[in-house]
Specification:
With 293 residues, the chain is an alpha/beta fold. It has helices at 48-54, 57-60, 74-90, 107-114, 126-134, 169-179, 196-201, 219-225, 245-256, 260-269, and strands spanning 20-26, 29-34, 40-41, 97-101, 118-123, 139-141, 154-160, 180-191, 215-216, 231-238, 241-244, 277-280, 285-292.
Length: 293
């Protein structure tokens, strides 16, 4: 069970300060902004069991806040994985030991392995990791912060649309630092709550979906989390991501809420046309690289 905490007892999960303002409430969760580090977040008390339940099969199949069918979009996920690998290659990052946090069904991990990387995945979802294990991916199943990696260190750690889902970003950043070799690279793709589309839509922006998405970053809050004392920012830019039309329609359906329009988007996503790939480029998705000092 995920329970909102009393606002007065909440500290920022990134910097720990209590200088917070209440912006609005979404799905009965308050969305707060830290005046110190600029993080926006929805406070929720999670346990490993509650996270496992949250990211069960129901999140990946016919979900209003997750995916219409994650596995059916395998080909699109793999093509996007190869685009990620090409981008990393252009940044001069060569194969070594890779940890993919939030590996889901393992499509990126599998494509990375084919490209010469030694790969480990980590994910909380039993449903998703079963798919990854069928591909022969070594997966550590569980909450990233408490997962045991047996003293391993990595050359590259990837979090593609993952960090915003993790309840304790400061503890996540600390663990990422410990798991990376000096000079190793952290690749983070996440959402920009300062983007034009996010500001125009306000509380209706599709990423304000607690208890699934808990942190809403901008450049300032991401840079505060990965501070210059420990991390060198190598790149930060708006990203284009190719997704299936069914994924795009699920986002639009979420914006439409309930009713005939949302039902129409759901129906279209289930048809053959739903497999067509389209570019997602609304300016609210960012891709950044950090080097561990």
């Amino acid at each position: 069970m995920v329970t909102p905490r009393g606002i007065g007892s909440v500290g920022c999960p990134s910097c720990g300060r209590y200088d917070l303002s209440l912006l609005f409430t979404k799905y009965d969760f308050p969305v707060l902004e830290c005046r110190t580090c600029e993080l926006r977040f929805a406070p929720a008390e999670h346990t490993e069991d509650s996270l496992r339940a949250l990211y069960s099969e129901g999140y990946f199949v016919n979900s209003a806040t997750g995916y219409l069918h994650y596995v059916h979009d395998e080909d699109a996920h793999r093509r996007q994985a190869r685009r990620y690998l090409a981008r990393l290659g252009r940044a001069g990052i060569r194969p070594g030991r890779l940890l993919d946090v939030g590996c889901a069904a393992g499509y990126f991990a599998d494509e990375a392995r084919k490209a010469g990387w030694q790969v480990v995945g980590c994910d909380i979802s039993e449903y998703a990791t079963r798919q990854a294990e069928r591909l022969g991916i070594r997966v550590i199943r569980g909450d990233f912060v408490s997962a045991d990696f047996g003293g391993e260190v990595f050359d590259l750690i990837t979090l593609f649309n993952v960090i915003e889902h993790l309840p304790e970003p400061r503890r996540v950043a600390t663990k990422l630092y410990r798991l990376l070799k000096p000079g190793g690279v952290l690749a983070v793709e996440t959402w920009d709550r300062d983007s034009m589309v996010a500001r125009v839509l306000g509380r209706r922006w599709h990423q304000y979906t607690p208890p699934y998405v808990l942190s809403y970053f901008n450049r300032g809050s991401l840079r505060h989390l990965f501070d210059p004392e420990h991390w060198k920012l190598r790149s930060y830019h708006i990203a284009t991501k190719w997704i299936t039309l069914r994924r795009g329609l699920s986002i639009l359906g979420g914006l439409a809420g309930t009713g005939l329009v949302a039902e129409l988007f759901g129906w279209l996503g289930g048809t053959r046309v739903g497999s067509v790939e389209v570019p997602y480029f609304l300016g609210d998705l960012i891709f950044s690289l950090f080097e561990r000092l």
